[in-house]
Fold:
Amino acid sequence: MNEYPSATDYYKAVQSPAHCFTIERLRTATFAEDELGLPIAAKGSSAVVFKAEVDGASQAVRCYIRSDASSHDWYGALGSYLASHGDLEPHLPATLWLDEAIRVKGAAWPVLQMGWVNGRTLEEYVKFLVEGSNVTALTALAARWRELVARMQKDEFAHGDLQHGNIMVNQEGRLCLVDFDGIWIPELAGLPAPTEFGHRNYQHPGRQGPSGWGRWDDTFAALVIYLSLVALAKDPGLWPVLYNKDNLLLEQADFRSPFATQAWVKLAALHDEEVDLLAARLQECCALTWIPDQSLETLLGPRQPTAVPSPATATRRWWDSETAVPTAQAPSSWQWAVKSAAPAAAAPAQPPTVVLPSPPPLQSSSSSRPTAPGPARVPAAGKARAPAGESWWAQPAAKPAAAQPSRPSAYPARQVVGGLVLGAGIALVIIGIMIHAAAAIILVLAGLAAVACGGVQFVPRNTRSGQPPGPT
Structure:
């Protein structure tokens, strides 16, 4: 078989869809373009992806650059599975494998057509909530995540690469998954394991290659994400300290004993019972002898009561924040003490339903051109650049400018005092000039000093380098 085309090969071909595609609906599709009129593309480790309007619907057109990434049988099995598991359908965009759909380098190659998720990656959405100090929504997001994982594992569905770039929050506030090249479902159990085995900052430290592929493949990564969301709901100040643009809070180095990295120190400093229990469970799972043989729900045991902050903050936007997010103070040295399993308990009362706020808009209201579906477009010549974390659907969030503080309606007290001192100083100078007594010089000097002191009070005092209050 010929070597698969490169991302640049596909990029050049897609500039003329009527000539490169063999499927009529793709030949007439409208591909998203940048300001120069060139296709917008994003490259991952196994494919390059384009956004297109196909038959009036936004679609992701995924063109593979590796022969071992996926196959017709793989996505055919996924389609059959979803047809009988309607409860997962809202969280998994529809996919359609098309054999020999695009002609590049003198041969025809497969294309995966996939529903476009109109939303933000989990990484971007968490940042949106953290910058708005929206702990209510963060608490609700953690609960929604645990519920989705429970549903997936009950339905015998494992994604295989749960991480911040493969989880999205759409404009309705619903969690969605993308990139199904590493999934496990019963229909695939007899096929060779996928060559993709997950993001290093979310996978077990002992996982090598396809080992561990199976029904419970997601338990470790799901716990990493759940712990991160719960901890951020307790203290959003953890985000600027532990987030490194390729994780949420934890990374691969944190999954090895003796668990004395900064992340564990910060989590322990919260002194929160729920965070302590989740952290202890994750540390137990980090043992090199640990095998994923149960669901996240079974691992964690009965749900613990979770205090839900006032719903009033649920509708706050990130540009409404007025106070800086506090940062947890960590002890100078610390090592986690693994706790024993919590005893079984009755399920607590469910917290009030919280509607997750919509992610920030995907494009500026002043522009009709679609926002790029990926960080960096593939150049017309040379090697395509892979975005950080290889998340093709990540879109840069356009954060509105922070509102400037309003002017005070009255002078501050110090300016009133300054005016009185200034006036008294001027009077002393005038009196000193008019009289010819020996005390005239003293009066003039005293008046000049008072004028200087009073004038200083009218000079604006800049705080935090002139920035408005709030996070910097």
User: Anything to note?
Assistant: The chain has 13 helices and nine strands. The CA atoms of residues 6 and 95 lie 22 Å apart. The chain has three domains: 7-116, 119-320, 413-461. Residues 119-320 form a domain with the Transferase(Phosphotransferase); domain 1 fold (CATH 1.10.510).
